[in-house]
């Protein structure tokens, strides 16, 4: 009998005697023939000697001690008693992708605080609940611990305990390569992976293990195999769609000492990413929710100097995969931010280094901040700037920027036809592709697109990734078609350098903690946009954190900068808030100094609106993407005129000898998308309201909501009539239309291989008109128009009756002004049918609109019915067959709709 079992027998006997003497029933305690778990753990752990367990394994020492068995591929972790119950950070990213389906190299997969906790004969990997916290020595901490739960992700058996060091050995392999791996990889990309593929354990392995004093780096390779009965379409980026590999990078870090970093409270007037928790101990402030901004730990080397170099600057390394010709532009984009840091008291806060070709470190190593070059088959972004943050304090610890090579390569070839010509006869397919929809329809999809999916993979981000590429292509086309600039000229090269510097500056802003600012493009008046004396001193935009379009000059004006060449006033102010050294040992001691900075938010050049003010909202025309100037109506009109001029330029453009016509088709369609984007910008004025985050007492503070002036709303409606709905809006020569042939390569190298052979120009125009019309009459916009009459009692507002009347008169001009023979063109007939469809849906309650909108739609149909009666009676013999049949059918449909509406009431 072993000593353990002898001890257990004596222990059991003593318990039995105690129960008998106390009178308690013996079955009150569950009987067992096994020793207690803590004794069992010791015995089982010692069954395999430590040295035997790690035999033939490579010992790798650093922050933690690991053993990598090369033959079996297993990785063991040796934990000291001091490393138990201690906070660590885990950062997980995708180190390789497939370049398609939203699965791209460099994407963040997960990050969290965790602890190793021993429980009997196992070690648990636990994510502590840091969302609820108390101050030290607060007795409420006991309540918090019992009120909310931590999350136990894994419970791993102890392999062995070292007899001398008392260290614990566990097997990490299942944590790093199984279907339940730390990254939750199989569920990280919506339903694409989980529906079509599964992790194949036979193809998955741990590829690399590295240990450093401050971090552990492990790379796992996950092999995916196709599920039986998979309905997936072929992935063109793969040699065989039945299988692919993904490399996942795990970085484990010790949580930095809180003594070396002072968190800074967030303010919603200044756009920073935040780390948030609820302070249970807080009873003296209005809210117990605490938000820290995400920022780097910049400290002055000379605290007494007005401007000082930092103790530890932020260093970005340009990856050695970046083409030589783009490295200087990337460097300039990074260094743009030093101007802001100088105003915040730091000299050379950001530095740029070039990664050597023979570097012995990996760009994914969290010790290095890198700017990496990605080459994807179907990229969903032009740039991507994630950072890794300590969620306990908001301190940024590491950042990596991905630049997509397709953002700058081959302007025309890189622009796919966003609206698949092959979908024109399939309304269901077309409506399921958000890139084909206007903003009103996109708003209805926003909540669904964010459900259980990282925003970086969501549909609207994918669409506007394409829009960025389209902007770059449009600028190059304008230079060629309007100004005769050769594709290989130095001017084109400078143009690309400007774009790349701006793109990198935008992504660096994210890595500094800054969120998007979709009001950043409203700094200058339209006539100032091409005055380089202004744009090189003040900036082209208030913030490079906006999605900025190419800045094309109108006809007759000298072209200025195409893209921002410096950060803007908002960027400098935001860095001042986040990084200026402020005295005070506590968060709230710094409060007044931060408040003094934030109170400037009402200044026009510091206007701020971020993602939640734009996506799915579309309320404020100034909170917008790919717009420019403080008078967007004038700017958009300029761009619509530029688009028309480019179409005219294509009429005289012919491919050079030996080239096909598919490039003409691509250019034609690219301009169409540009035209639509600028028209959509105008729609935002109708029923629009400006929104600001100013607080009482701020400089230039205003009420949060202000209606867009009625003259601006009417101007927008007038411009839409001219550029979208009028008879003369789309005029193309037969010669141009007969050049629109697609590439006939039927393989994965042609992104438009599924396009229809002929370009269906009538359908293309109608889709644009339908999109704009649906946005104007969107239920949300009609509700806003109704409510604006209450918010603006002076009656100086655009009313729903006026909107309906203007639309009907402009779309049915031929019958309302029928003094002569009537001939309605095919494009106008299609538009009129769509208008009738929309009003019919409203009248029959197929859409949820205000009752007044339903009444007005009914009234407009009655008015139109009466006009059609008179027109058909007066001009019956003076119409072509198309027009006569169209008007007869329209009158018949209106009668049936009004009759059906009476029955539903």
TrEMBL record:
Molecular function per GO: metallopeptidase activity
Parts forming coiled coils: none
Ranges for domain EcxA zinc-binding: 492-815
Residue span, DUF5117 domain: 107-300
Xref: InterPro entries: DUF5117, EcxA_zinc-bd, MetalloPept_cat_dom_sf, Zn_MMP-like_bac
Pfam families, alphabetized: DUF4953 (PF16313), DUF5117 (PF17148)
PANTHER family, alphabetized: PEPTIDASE M1A AND M12B, ZINC DEPENDENT METALLOPROTEASE DOMAIN LIPOPROTEIN
UniProt-recorded name of the protein: Peptidase M43
Organism: Limnoraphis robusta CS-951
